[in-house]
Specification:
The complex is a heterodimer of chains A (285) and B (429).
Chain A: H1 3-45, E1 51-57, E2 63-67, E3 69-73, E4 80-81, E5 90-95, E6 99-104, E7 111-113, E8 116-117, E9 122-124, E10 129-132, E11 135-141, H2 161-165, E12 169-172, E13 175-178, H3 191-194, H4 278-284
Parallel strand pairs in A: 3-4
Antiparallel strand pairs in A: 1-2, 1-11, 3-5, 5-6, 6-9, 7-8, 7-10, 10-11, 12-13
Chain B: H1 3-37, H2 41-64, H3 69-89, H4 91-117, H5 122-141, E1 155-157, E2 160-162, H6 164-181, H7 185-201, H8 205-223, H9 226-246, H10 253-263, H11 276-288, H12 311-319, H13 321-344, H14 348-372, H15 390-421
Antiparallel strand pairs in B: 1-2
Helix pairs in contact in B: 1-2, 1-3, 2-3, 3-4, 3-13, 4-15, 5-6, 5-7, 6-7, 6-8, 6-14, 6-15, 7-8, 8-9, 8-14, 11-12, 12-13, 13-14, 13-15, 14-15
The chains are: A alpha+beta (285), B mainly alpha (429).
């Protein structure tokens, strides 16, 4: 191509290049903005996005959303901020398939997980109790997460509702009888002996109960028995309550763990953990 | 997913396709113009291959590997523009840049997959740190054979040449993000100090500034402590003052030259190592004006290192100031996108990784563009994605791969949250 023609072409192409470059910037900027807005809208619809559960203060009943990763402590930068704690007390990370990995930020963090001192990293599962700086926090995870079931909730066989409240019975002899108290042999304690009968227990048989002269059984479960909603609520508060860590006061800047521990109120409500679906919570809202 | 969401997604995809198409058209037009100037089969092949490759990468790669399409489009635009400019001045170099781009793509995919799939970086951190130190020490072993323009930052194995400090950037980001996410500030500072020490000994002050600037941004992002940053800056200034007093007539002669060239480049215009390069760069940019001289009509090749440090001056010369501003805006958009990805991240490590990558890119762009426009003293670093050089391009693409990895991880978590919220069960469902 001749030099002059090429010059003309090249000078004309400058406008095309400029327009295309501006179009690229415009499209990219618009795209960036659109995606930003779309994500904001999506996150509005998913208020629990990025969260894996919550920590509930057993004393005050307050709930703190539990992110996939964060820090529990007293400083403003912490994801869960509790007054009176050290600036950074415990790191937590959600590990898929294992639970919430809790790692103390200091060697002497005085943090108890399910009654055991948290020295290095430990996994907390659903329903675990974390005691830190006078706070008792119950960890509750969202359902559907790939987390193993806590050991105390694991059952080798399914447990049915009536079994939860049914007496411990054993088939024997003429029918069934209530198991003897601890330390006594079955032959030492028979219900018919209480009724003045001295007939020895016959050999084992599956004779129907109505053929025997056993006293009538009380209606079971009793009318005033609470409704058994499921296995979750059978989990009681730990029997051995670890020593309390007194809550820090304005006079004592740093908490003094294990010193003059104040006993937890006896009638403090124990809220059982509930694995709940986010969809249910959204519906409730 | 409901219909409205699908429609929104389709609209965004349409916009991205339009963006890809615009990039392809611009590059095709550039190569077509070069073909019109000097017809050759190679130019014709490049005119077809480069836009098609840019389009194919944007269309196919996100289907095979989890990638952010917008970032990919912007990177492709810059890389293709770099190839076009290299080809315009030296066709052989343009073709070589294409191969460098392919190597960069491999690095990007590898980094993205590593960030997405490696969960425990704790075990890898120490070996990576040791590897970084080993790599940075390599130029001292080959010092005599690789002295290059004042800096001893290059290593040569036969005909293969590389700059270890460029590759170490990726590892540096990973290590710093990991250490700072674990609040190991002292260790992070020590590692940064070691890297800066190596770079200062190599006399590669531009790269040292990039490392230092990135470390500052990461430290602030991790600790939110202005006092810490001010303290480190004060200590840095003090160390430089002491070193200046000690090595005023030996090591710091280069620094003195650069500062005097920056203050008045015309005074040292005709001296060896004087302000010739800066003055020629300024003349080339001024010659371009608002609209440029036109592709193939510029004469920016008189600038020393026009293909590396001063590639932006050549773009400004031939495409004009407004086009150069658009290119600059593309950098800004990349940094904004990376910052957005960092803010959306759910883990400290990934957030710091993305913000560190964005900071590194921003600092590098600022240092080189500030240098060629005489805003700050000139230091020899490459323009990300545009400059000629395999190591630089691979490093920049690898850094983009880190951001892509974080973006894909964010998407995966968001999808999981969406599924959980819809009551379909979790990862095991």
């Amino acid at each position: 191509m001749q030099s002059n023609t090429y010059q003309l072409l090249s000078l004309g192409a400058r406008v095309l290049f400029l327009l295309l470059a501006l179009l690229i910037v415009l499209h990219a900027g618009l795209n960036l903005l659109q995606q930003h807005i779309a994500r904001k809208r999506l996150l509005k619809k998913l208020p629990d996005a990025g969260m894996v559960g919550e920590m509930r203060d057993m004393d005050s009943g307050k709930s703190y959303p539990l992110a996939r990763e964060g820090v529990l402590g007293g400083s403003r930068g912490c994801d869960i901020r509790l007054k009176g704690l050290r600036r950074r007390q415990v790191n937590f990370v959600y590990v898929d398939g294992k639970g919430i990995l809790l790692t103390p930020c200091h060697r002497r963090s005085n943090t108890l997980l399910d009654g055991e001192m948290l020295r290095r990293g430990a996994y907390a599962l659903h329903g675990a109790i974390l005691r830190v700086g006078g706070y008792t926090l119950r960890i509750r995870l969202f359902s559907g997460l790939n987390v193993p079931q806590p050991a105390q909730f694991q059952h080798s066989q399914p447990v049915y509702e009536d079994e939860l409240y049914a007496p411990d019975v054993t088939l024997a002899g003429h029918g069934f009888y209530v198991n003897p108290p601890m330390g006594q042999q079955p032959e030492d304690w028979y219900p018919w002996e209480e009724d003045g009968q001295s007939e020895p227990a016959p050999a084992f048989s599956y004779a129907p109960a109505e053929e025997t002269d056993l006293p009538p059984q009380a209606a079971w479960p009793p009318a005033d028995a609470p409704y058994a909603p499921g296995w979750e609520e059978t989990q009681a508060f730990p029997a051995e309550v670890p020593p309390e860590i007194p809550r820090a006061t304005p006079e004592t800047e740093a908490p003094q763990p294990f010193a003059e521990s104040a006993a937890a109120p006896e009638d403090a409500p124990i809220v059982p953990p509930q694995r709940h679906r986010r969809a249910d919570r959204r519906r409730e809202r | 997913m409901n219909i409205a969401l699908k429609a929104q997604k389709r609209k965004r995809h349409d916009l991205q396709r339009l963006l890809t198409g615009t990039v392809m058209l611009l590059i095709f037009a550039g190569f077509a113009l070069l073909f019109a100037r000097k017809p050759s089969p190679q130019t014709a092949l490049m005119a077809l291959a480069v836009p098609c490759a840019a389009g194919a990468v944007t269309a196919i790669l996100p289907r095979l590997f989890p990638m952010d399409r917008l970032l990919l489009n912007l990177i492709n635009f810059l890389c293709a523009l770099g190839v076009l400019m290299q080809y315009r001045y030296n066709p052989g170099r343009g073709v070589a840049q294409c191969f460098n781009y392919c190597a960069g793509l491999v690095a990007m995919i590898a980094c993205a997959l590593a960030v997405r799939h490696i969960k425990n970086w704790r075990l890898l951190t120490l070996p990576i740190m040791a590897g970084c130190c080993g790599m940075m020490a390599l130029p001292f072993v080959f010092r005599a054979a690789n002295r290059n323009l004042g800096a001893t930052a290059w290593v040569a194995f036969g005909s293969f040449r590389m700059q270890p400090s460029e590759i170490v950037k990726i590892a540096f980001l990973l290590v710093m993000a990991h250490l700072l996410s674990r609040r190991k500030v002292v260790l992070a500072l020590g590692f940064t100090g070691a890297m800066l020490g190596f770079l200062v000994l190599q006399r590669d002050l531009g790269t040292a500034a990039i490392y230092g600037g990135t470390a500052m941004v990461l430290l602030y992002a991790a600790t939110s402590s202005v006092l810490l940053i001010l303290g480190i800056l004060g200590a840095g200034v003090g160390a430089v003052a002491v070193l200046y007093a000690l090595f005023k007539n030996t090591y710091f002669l280069t620094v003195q030259n650069r500062i005097s060239n920056w203050l008045d480049p015309f005074a040292t215009y005709d001296q060896l190592g004087g302000g010739y390069q800066i003055v020629q760069g300024l003349i080339a940019m001024a010659n371009g004006g608002w609209w440029g001289t036109g592709l193939g009509l510029g004469n920016a090749s008189v600038i020393p290192e026009y293909q590396n440090d001063f590639i932006f001056a050549t773009i400004m010369n031939e495409f004009g100031f407004i086009f150069a501003c658009a290119v600059l805006l593309v950098y800004v958009l990349i940094v904004l996108r990376a910052a957005d990805i960092a803010l959306r991240s759910t883990s400290a490590f990934h957030a710091l990784l993305a913000i560190g990558s964005a900071a590194l890119l921003a600092v590098q762009t600022f240092i080189i563009l500030g240098g060629i426009t005489k805003f700050i003293p000139m230091t020899g670093v490459t323009v990300p994605f545009l400059s000629y050089g395999g190591t630089s391009l691979v490093s920049c693409m690898g850094i983009m791969g880190l951001i892509q990895g974080v973006a894909s991880r964010n998407e995966r978590i968001l999808h999981e949250d969406q599924r959980l919220a819809e009551g379909e069960g979790g990862a095991d469902a």
